[in-house]
Specification:
2 domains, 9 helices, about 0% strand, Tetracycline Repressor, domain 2
């Protein structure tokens, strides 16, 4: 994600798409630092180096900014998970890639994971629906792979999938906050090994 342009003189004209990226980057910085409720449009505009009217030209309100960021990063997480699952047909490597995708997302620049997993707007319907939709998409992606390679039902595969996602998300966030001295790849591999010991107990068509 582009960084806010604090060095660009106020009033410099940018193409609409570039300006939108600049405003979203500034908003993400403020939301992550302060949380949604404590963030102010004045502060976001100042961080972006624009006037408040310019900010409102692109986003009618603070919630619009937040939902745009949530949509962007939720989609990025789903796409990262899809890419991990499609990166190999070796199931053990696929488990490792899937867990690594979560560690990569949590450790990503700008702490975007906090907008998805630690939102102080979690009870707002629009936010809750987007987070639930993102989880459901990831569950279906992983569940479909499990179902194809085992003899279990779709419901059982999805239940296993949400368990794996819970492991990935919780362990990645815990690692970031407590054990950042363990290299990210090593941490992801460690938890993936734990998950693989459980999954490999089923008869798999591909080991």
């Amino acid at each position: 994600m582009a960084t806010p342009s604090d060095t660009r003189p106020r009033g410099t004209r940018l193409p609409r798409t570039a300006r939108r990226r600049q405003l979203l980057a500034a908003a993400q910085e403020v939301f992550v630092a302060r949380g949604y409720h404590a963030a102010a449009m004045d502060e976001i505009a100042e961080s972006a180096g624009v006037s408040k009217p310019v900010l409102y030209q692109h986003f009618p309100g603070k919630l619009d900014l937040y939902l745009a960021l949530l949509e962007e990063h939720s989609e990025a997480l789903v796409q990262t998970q899809r890419a991990a699952l499609e990166s190999t047909e070796d199931n053990r490597q696929r488990v490792a890639a899937s867990f690594q995708a979560y560690f990569d997302f949590v450790a990503g620049e700008g702490k975007a994971y906090r907008l998805v997993f630690e939102s102080d707007l979690g009870n707002l319907p629009q936010v809750r629906e987007k987070v639930d939709e993102t989880t459901d998409q990831c569950v279906r992606l992983i569940g479909e792979v499990i179902r194809q390679d085992t003899s279990i039902s779709e419901s059982e595969a999805n239940l296993l999938s949400i368990g794996l996602l819970g492991m990935a998300q919780t362990s990645a966030r815990y690692w970031l906050n407590h054990y950042g001295t363990i290299p990210k790849e090593d941490a992801g591999q460690l938890i993936a090994r734990l998950a693989w010991r459980g999954l490999s107990g089923w008869d798999l068509t591909r080991a």
